């Protein structure tokens, strides 16, 4: 039934949310930021419906046609099916498609193969799994490294289902978001930011006291200020400045990424004695890779070899003084359980000490033979039954992952792929074929003894990723008491609980899965294809793919206007039938046309601006002061057409009478780049309110 007080709207499109759990509630909040009408369906009314600011609430089963009709399915541009029951979500998607053949279906589902088949059959269908979306943010938060995010950009066909594909496809181009702090011996010290923003690196942010006084002041009045394009190109880097950079690396060579992830784990003492430390570290790593039985066997074998060598020198002191070959033969006979009757005559009258020594040889040999039989049996069973032998537990500088549920497995897979030292802690025994490279301890982790099994005192970080928020908090507090220097990352499922825990544990990273995933679901409901997400300055950045269509708010706009006006970072552009361009330049006069593929880094507020067509104000004015003699006017006209929204005739008219203020205001970085290009062509310019 309809909720009393529901508002009636007919002129604007609707988006429906089915399932008002943690994820559904966050989706409604994210959707309201786009200023669209939101209807919701749930079995029962939420305790505080006014907090969700819904335009229409219907209580009932979203699989029923009459319930969907009451929630205005025929007026909806998209429907988000985000209940905890995947079967309900799929059945509701089928019912919604019957009622509205054009509605976009955004479904919460973990069965990737089924999702792909439904997408091929139903069309305009996308499926997400919240844990798959949030896992990279958790993995990076546990590393305390300079890598803030990474994602792959593939071909147009591959990127369509980037978050749900199960096939082993060829990997695309790996892009990384990294941070770099300028030190006294840094090669970038003293360089201008615009010098850094070339070649392999693209500046996303420059964080320093001076940067806060730059052009970012124009956004101070906004609730959610822009995240990008607020740095000053002419500012020189100083000690302590922090840069956030976008860089691309070859995906087949993960060495650079792993080295960045592991930089903070290097020990100063190891750097002081590199040769000895490297040898010791290799020996220690080789020893740690052996199982317990293998280590005991190796120790017993080493001990036995020592006894045999001792026997070669001790037995000749017998009065009969046998040759060394005879003593070696005698030692081997004693090792395999022989008696004095099996020895040559000279050994029949040995002294008491030598007899005791021979008994030690026999006992040691018997123990070793038993160990060898056990080891051989283990190898045979493993090979015959294909049993999984997990690696030994790391003992220092590792990551402890508590909870190997759906999210925990996704996090573990990412960390294992990057060869990070990791140990899992799980109450239930996982399947043998589940991440065989991951060492696992079977314990709840809620006791000191359980955490001590995974060497929490020497761990680098702890990831509490169980499905119970209170257990995650309990484990984190206990780990903090055992290791005050341990980095904590805590999973939560409630936004309010996250805020409370963040106030209690300001040193920990609190990540709420519904909050992270909801932004991707909301963006997908509007037609965008969300490829990945990561955290930057406590805000979620979405790697979002657009296909430009006639009449949308990207069509026929300069790429520079899109980047600066919507505060997004274009990372890929591809024309229909053309090749993709990574990190396209903004000063080439590129104008977006129908069919173009554009991938950007954007916050949810930037996506809202694109949806609404609301661009940031242009507050910078450039004045053409004077052209130097013998300047080629055609070059100047080409520069103006590449940087401004004007044609050749308009650009030529701007040069007829100087000095002249350009009629259209510009964005800060847009004005600077035009100023630089014109000065290079021989035109003296000035920028109002821009300090060069």
Question: How would you characterize the largest beta sheet?
Answer: 6 strands, parallel
The CATH class of the largest domain is Alpha Beta
Distance between the termini: 63 Å
**Total separate domains:** 6
- CATH domain fold name of the largest domain: Rossmann fold
Mean pLDDT: 80
CATH superfamily of the largest domain: NAD(P)-binding Rossmann-like Domain
- Kindly state the percentage of residues in helix: 25-40%
Helix- and strand-based class?
Answer: alpha/beta
- Rg value: 33 Å
Q: What's the tally of helices?
A: 24
Strand order of the largest sheet: 3-2-1-4-5-6
Describe it for me?
The chain is α/β, with parallel strands linked by helices. It folds into six domains: 14-128, NAD(P)-binding Rossmann-like Domain (Rossmann fold, 3-Layer(aba) Sandwich), CATH 3.40.50; 146-261, Alpha-Beta Plaits (2-Layer Sandwich); 292-385, Helix Hairpins (Orthogonal Bundle), CATH 1.10.287.70; 399-516, Rossmann fold; 518-612, 2-Layer Sandwich (Alpha-Beta Plaits), CATH 3.30.70.1450; 621-688, Ribosomal protein L7/L12, C-terminal domain/Adaptor protein ClpS (Ribosomal Protein L30, Chain: A, 2-Layer Sandwich), CATH 3.30.1390.10. Helix content is 38%, strand content 19%. A six-stranded parallel beta sheet has the order 3-2-1-4-5-6, with helices on both faces. A six-stranded parallel beta sheet has the order 13-12-11-14-15-16, with helices on both faces. The chain has a five-stranded antiparallel beta sheet with strand order 17-18-21-19-20. Helix 1 (22-32) links the parallel strand 1 and strand 2. Helix 6 (130-141) packs across helix 15 (406-417), helix 6 packs across helix 19 (513-525) and helix 12 runs antiparallel to helix 13. The chain is globular. The two termini are 63 Å apart. Mean pLDDT is 80; it is low at 1-11, 157-169, 211-223, 250-254 and 263-274.
């Amino acid at each position: 039934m309809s909720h009393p007080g529901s508002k009636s709207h007919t002129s604007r499109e609707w988006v429906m949310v089915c399932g008002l759990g943690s994820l559904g509630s966050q989706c409604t909040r994210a959707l309201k930021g786009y200023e669209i009408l939101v209807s919701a369906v749930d079995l029962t009314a939420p305790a505080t419906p006014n907090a969700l600011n819904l335009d229409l609430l219907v209580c009932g089963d979203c699989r029923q046609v009459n319930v969907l009709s009451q929630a205005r399915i025929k007026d909806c541009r998209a429907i988000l099916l985000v209940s905890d029951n995947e079967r309900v979500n799929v059945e509701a998607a089928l019912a919604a498609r019957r009622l509205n053949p054009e509605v976009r279906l955004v479904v919460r589902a973990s069965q990737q193969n089924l999702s792909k088949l439904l997408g091929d059959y139903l069309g305009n269908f996308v499926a997400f799994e919240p844990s798959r979306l949030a896992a990279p943010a958790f993995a990076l938060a546990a590393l305390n490294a300079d890598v803030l995010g990474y994602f792959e950009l593939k071909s147009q066909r591959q990127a369509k289902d980037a978050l749900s594909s199960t096939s082993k496809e060829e990997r695309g181009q790996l892009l990384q978001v990294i941070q770099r702090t300028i030190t006294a011996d840094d090669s970038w010290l003293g360089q201008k930011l615009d010098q850094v923003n070339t070649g392999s690196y693209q500046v996303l942010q420059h964080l320093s006291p001076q940067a806060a006084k730059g052009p970012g002041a124009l956004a101070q009045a906004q609730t959610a200020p822009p995240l990008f394009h607020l740095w000053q190109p002419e500012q020189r880097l100083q000690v302590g400045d922090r840069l956030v950079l976008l860089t691309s690396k070859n995906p087949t060579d993960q060495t650079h990424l792993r080295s960045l992830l592991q930089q903070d784990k290097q020990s100063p003492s190891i750097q002081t004695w590199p040769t000895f430390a490297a040898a010791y570290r290799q020996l220690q790593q080789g020893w740690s890779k052996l199982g317990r039985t293998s280590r005991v066997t190796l120790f017993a074998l080493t001990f036995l070899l020592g006894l045999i060598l001792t026997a070669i020198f001790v037995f000749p002191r017998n009065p009969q003084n046998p040759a060394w070959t005879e003593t070696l033969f005698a030692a081997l006979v004693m090792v395999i359980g022989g008696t004095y009757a099996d020895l040559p005559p000279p050994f029949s009258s040995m002294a008491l000490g030598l007899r005791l020594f021979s008994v030690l040889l026999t006992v040691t040999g018997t123990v070793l033979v038993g160990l060898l039989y056990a080891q051989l049996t283990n190898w045979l069973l493993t090979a015959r039954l294909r049993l999984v032998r997990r690696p030994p537990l790391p003992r220092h500088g590792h990551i402890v992952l508590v909870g190997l549920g759906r999210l925990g497995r996704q996090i573990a897979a990412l960390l294992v792929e990057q060869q990070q030292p990791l140990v899992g802690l799980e109450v239930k025994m996982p399947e043998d074929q589940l991440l065989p490279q991951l060492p696992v301890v079977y314990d709840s982790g809620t006791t000191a003894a359980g955490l001590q099994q995974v060497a929490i005192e020497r761990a680098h970080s702890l990831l509490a990723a169980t499905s119970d928020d209170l257990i995650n908090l309990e484990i984190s507090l206990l780990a903090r008491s055992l290791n005050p220097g341990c980095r904590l990352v805590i999973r939560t499922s409630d936004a309010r609980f996250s805020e409370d825990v963040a106030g209690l544990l300001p040193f920990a990273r609190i990540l709420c899965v519904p909050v992270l995933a909801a932004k991707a679901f909301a963006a997908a409901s509007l037609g965008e294809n969300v490829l990945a997400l990561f955290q930057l300055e406590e805000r979620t950045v979405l790697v979002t793919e657009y296909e430009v269509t006639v009449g949308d708010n990207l069509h026929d706009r300069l790429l520079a206007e899109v980047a600066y006006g919507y505060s997004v970072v274009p990372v890929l552009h591809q024309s229909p039938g053309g090749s993709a361009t990574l990190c396209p330049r903004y000063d080439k006069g590129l104008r977006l046309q129908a069919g173009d593929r554009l991938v950007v880094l954007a916050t949810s507020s930037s996506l809202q601006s694109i949806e609404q067509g609301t661009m940031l104000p242009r507050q910078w004015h450039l004045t053409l002061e004077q052209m130097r003699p013998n300047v080629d006017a055609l070059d100047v006209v080409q520069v103006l057409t590449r940087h401004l929204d004007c044609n050749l005739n308009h650009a030529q008219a701007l040069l007829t009478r100087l000095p002249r203020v350009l009629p259209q205001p510009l964005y800060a970085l847009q004005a600077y780049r035009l100023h630089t290009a014109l000065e290079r062509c021989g035109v003296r310019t000035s920028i109002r309110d821009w300090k060069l």
